[in-house]
Amino acid sequence: MERTETAETSGTAGTAESDGRDAEGRHARPGAFTNRAMNTFSPADEEKRRGVRRMKLTATGLLLFVAVVYVLAKWASHQGAGPWAGYVAAAAEAGMVGALADWFAVTALFRHPLGLPIPHTAIIPTKKDQLGVSLGEFVGENFLSEAVVRQRLRAVGIGSRLGAWLAVPEHADRVTAELSAALRGALTVLRDSDVQAVVGEAITRRAEAQEIAPGMGKMLERIVADGGHKRAVDVIVTRAHDWLVLHNDTVMDAVHGGAPGWTPKFVDRKVGERVYKELLRFVTEMRDMPTHPARGALDRFLTDFASDLQSDGDTRARVERLKNEIIGRNEVQDLIASVWTSVRSMIVSAAEDERSELRLRVRASLLSLGARMSLDPKVQGKVDGWLESAAVYVVTTYRKEITSLITDTVASWDAEHTTKKIEANIGRDLQFIRINGTVVGSLAGLLIYTVSRVLGA
Description:
This protein is mainly alpha-helical. It folds into three domains: 1-40, no CATH class; 41-126 and 414-456, no CATH class; 182-373, no CATH class. It has helices at 7-19, 32-38, 43-78, 83-110, 123-126, 128-142, 146-156, 158-166, 169-189, 192-209, 213-226, 228-246, 248-258, 265-288, 293-311, 313-327, 330-352, 357-375, 377-397, 399-412, 415-456. Residues 1-50 are annotated as: Disordered. Keywords: Membrane, Transmembrane, Transmembrane helix.
């Protein structure tokens, strides 16, 4: 029996929500009101639930109607009513099948049909947490995306505002001092490994920005065009032929090992011999025939692969991922870190000296940058782009933590009550699936029966 909330409970919840306190007057924790909203039924929800019940009765009534029609049509057919009874019975029978199938599908979303624990049923209550994860991922991909963040920051116009502020000498001095202090603190307090990680990330990001797939594609295209790959193919097929000749027993053992235990040994031996002969024949032909179809297929594959490296987005993305994995290897990162060690002491000394060339150049650069940012739209655009990239990095890096708010909130909802509330909101439309399934099934059954009769005639 479905649970309903009393008017008194609803009134208490509404009062608590209005002043930011719970029912006992305490300030509720964040998300408490959301959970309360999911665990109560509003008058609108109750009206929707009544609409769902009415549509369920309608869909069930239509099922009973076609069942009665089926019984009457079969009875009329046995009484010699004529060919029409067969058509009606076929349509009604298919309508029942369609109605029952769609009833099962709709019911399986919210509960186990007939209370039976059939696998992959009661999807919403059992998969509630997974649905929350999917919803969080959807928000992260569509709302916390690079395009949305960039568009919003671009509308603020940070570059022009920051430029006007930096153009003031006092502000430039202050920023220079703060940057120097921050740099000294980072280099003296942080461990070398931490600073090396930052430097390594900057260098790695620069390397990742250079795409290598198009260049590789052009090189492979030239190799294939010149026939340079054919020598490698010759070596491979020759070695494969020699290996097969010397390792007949190895191939046979592999076939025997993969055969079912119930097959006779002589069958396994015949199959193994056949497999070995076919492999040897294929490799021999490929070795001796420059025009072998497999060689042509390999040429076409390499040509297509060279083209994909230059124009196919998925292929280029996979190559980029492989490149990034290589860049992330410890050996490469150690090489990057060694560069930092040699310049660390020099940077610390320059940052501590107020009259050092480093600090003077930083101050002059800040003043110049501020003047250009306040006047030059191109510079403003560059600064806006840098800030947007930084914001995009933060959003994309910590997207999981941001979207976990959605995931954790959905996970805190009561599964049974959430299922009822979702059914109240979309269940009425889902009942039309049952009705449509009955009608479409009847028409399909009538069509199939008609075609079968015509072909049979």
